[in-house]
Amino acid sequence: GESVGLHLPTLSVQEGDNSIINCAYSNSASDYFIWYKQESGKGPQFIIDIRSNMDKRQGQRVTVLLNKTVKHLSLQIAATQPGDSAVYFCAEKGGGKLIFGQGTELSVKP
Amino acid sequence: ETGVTQSPTHLIKTRGQQVTLRCSSQSGHNTVSWYQQALGQGPQFIFQYYREEENGRGNFPPRFSGLQFPNYSSELNVNALELDDSALYLCASSSDGGYNEQFFGPGTRLTVL
Question: Disulfide check for B92: which of A2, A76, B33, B68 has CB 3.0–4.6 Å away?
Answer without folding.
Answer: B33
